């Protein structure tokens, strides 16, 4: 194999690195659904916004299901063929998403988009290291290091690599959110999909021009693992359905909620039964759960993504107090990019100085605590756009620190055979289960607090209150002058009187929940400081 593989011999190495990094961009623009456009999409299709939240989780489920098949796929793939076929499939799936209004079909497309996207990300990731450094990165998934010093060298390299990798990924994702919001604002939300289709076709052309023909060894995937994979997908999908639609459907008063619970329980139980009785190596290695750091990683990711769900208050506050639209919210989210860069720099400095993991974790939660504390003191009815920038910077700085270091930390002293299982577990917890739990917790929490404070604030708004009565009479009279009948005019007057109450109730509820989130972050930082670690554990 030539030194310039997988490129043609005439391709300079810096240009090859640039091509590989460019191939990342269209992948993270293709998300199946775009939450930055969720209001436009839901309004255009006449459906609930929760359905698009569920579609987003379907894409995350697809992302996680690549990792159980990761090792045989990477060993047998044809680099060039995978790129051409994968980008073509993504282009086709985005066309379907642009023209279809069938929600089950969109859920399937979102799942496949997530699956193919991660397969292509792995294809690129496992080409960059051999191409740049001559290191076969697949070996770390196949063989354990022979000595403790080599094991530490690999662990340290992962601790350095993860902040850089996640910073690039999160920056591309945030930029894609802004672009999709801009396209929806200037044109239509469907045009976002057509933009991604064009990017996929451009990526195919780039691969065909620069990549040489690659040998293929054949990808040998065990068909016995497919039932296990299907059961896991069904169980996770049913769980996400319950968590996303629970508030809207009043939880288990709805038949669909009870059916989803039964499907999740049966699917999960059948998977455990198959894993216990299969003669071959199971889809997910149960021995992974015997490692203490695995539980540390799961716990930190669940706590992180729970706190991360509080970011919806930033955009809600922006729209409520400044009358900003989706495009303005997307502009605020662009400040996440310098926040991620700051988090990457902070992580690398900590790794360079060999700071203990407990202090890095505490620092990450402290940054997120600072973001929520800042918002706690800035909630007001007449807000300012600039007040949402500092908490965005602080939040994403802390999130990137926790994101990157936790992934590397949980792989410490982990045998190579468990690496793929840990990556599946990490993506399933971090991108599927924990966000679904966090969104559900904060949505229900906000609803209950809004109801509580709206009742309290509206207590004095009665007909005998002079200010309320005067405003009611003025709006009612104006409605009648515009030609409305008595009932319509009274309804408009009631909305005008109680509208400020609802707005104030929402702001007070968010302030209350944000204050509680501050304590959750403080508890997370304290917990990370008190957890038992190996003596002298360093990055």
Automatic annotation (TrEMBL):
Keywords: Membrane, Transmembrane, Transmembrane helix, Transport
Any one GO cellular component localisation term in the record: membrane
SUPFAM superfamilies linked to this entry: MFS general substrate transporter (SSF103473)
Transport recorded as keyword: yes
Transmembrane spans: 54-74, 81-99, 105-133, 163-185, 191-214, 226-244, 256-274, 295-318, 358-377, 393-411, 418-437, 513-533
Keyword Transmembrane helix: yes
Topology within the bilayer: Multi-pass membrane protein
Name of this chain's protein: MFS transporter
Annotated compartments: Membrane
Top-rank taxon: Bacteria
Major subcellular location class: membrane
């Amino acid at each position: 194999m030539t030194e310039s593989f997988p490129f043609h011999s005439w391709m300079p190495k810096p240009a090859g690195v640039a091509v590989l990094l460019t191939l990342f961009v269209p992948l993270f623009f293709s998300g199946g659904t775009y939450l930055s456009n969720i209001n436009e999409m839901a309004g255009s299709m006449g459906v609930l916004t929760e359905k698009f939240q569920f579609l987003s989780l379907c894409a995350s489920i697809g992302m996680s299901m690549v990792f159980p098949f990761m090792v045989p796929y990477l060993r047998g793939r044809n680099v060039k063929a995978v790129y051409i076929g994968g980008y073509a499939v993504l282009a086709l799936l985005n066309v379907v998403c642009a023209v279809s209004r069938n929600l089950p079909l969109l859920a399937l497309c979102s799942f496949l988009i997530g699956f193919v996207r991660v397969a292509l990300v792995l294809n690129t990731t496992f080409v960059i290291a051999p191409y740049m450094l001559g290191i076969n990165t697949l070996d770390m998934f196949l063989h354990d290091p022979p000595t403790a010093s080599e094991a530490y060298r690999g662990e340290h390299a992962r601790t350095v690599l993860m902040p850089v990798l996640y910073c690039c990924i999160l920056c591309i994702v945030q930029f894609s959110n802004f672009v999709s919001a801009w396209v929806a604002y200037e044109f239509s939300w469907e045009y976002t999909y057509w933009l991604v289709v064009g990017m996929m076709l451009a990526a195919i052309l780039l691969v065909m021009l620069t990549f040489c023909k690659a040998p293929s060894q054949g990808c040998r995937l065990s068909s016995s693992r497919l039932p296990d994979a299907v059961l896991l997908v069904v169980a996770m999908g049913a769980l996400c359905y319950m968590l996303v639609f629970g508030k809207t459907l009043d939880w288990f008063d709805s038949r669909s909620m009870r059916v989803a619970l039964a499907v999740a329980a049966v699917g999960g139980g059948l998977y455990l039964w198959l894993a216990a009785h299969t003669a071959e190596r199971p889809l997910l290695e149960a021995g992974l759960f015997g490692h203490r750091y695995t539980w540390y990683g799961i716990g930190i990711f669940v706590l992180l993504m729970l706190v991360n769900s509080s970011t919806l208050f930033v955009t809600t506050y922006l729209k409520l107090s400044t009358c900003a639209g989706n495009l303005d919210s997307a502009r605020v989210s662009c400040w996440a990019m310098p926040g991620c860069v700051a988090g990457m720099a902070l992580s690398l400095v900590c790794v360079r100085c060999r700071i203990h993991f407990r202090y890095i974790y505490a620092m990450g939660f402290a940054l997120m605590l600072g973001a929520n504390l800042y918002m706690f003191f800035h909630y007001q009815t007449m807000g300012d756009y600039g007040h949402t920038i500092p908490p965005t910077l602080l939040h994403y700085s802390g999130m990137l620190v926790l994101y990157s270091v936790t992934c590397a930390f949980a792989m410490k002293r982990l045998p190579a055979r468990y690496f793929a299982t840990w990556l599946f577990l990490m993506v399933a917890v971090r991108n599927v289960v924990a966000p679904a739990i966090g969104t559900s917790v904060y949505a229900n929490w906000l609803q209950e607090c809004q109801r509580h404070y709206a009742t309290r604030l509206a207590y004095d708004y009665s007909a005998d209150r002079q200010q309320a009565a005067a405003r009611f009479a003025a709006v009612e009279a104006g409605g009648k002058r515009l030609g409305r009948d008595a009932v319509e005019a009274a309804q408009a007057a009631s909305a005008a009187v109680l509208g400020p109450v609802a707005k104030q109730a929402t702001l007070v509820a968010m302030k209350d929940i944000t204050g509680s989130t501050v304590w959750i972050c403080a508890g997370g930082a304290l917990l990370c400081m008190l957890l038992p670690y190996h003596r002298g554990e360093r990055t």
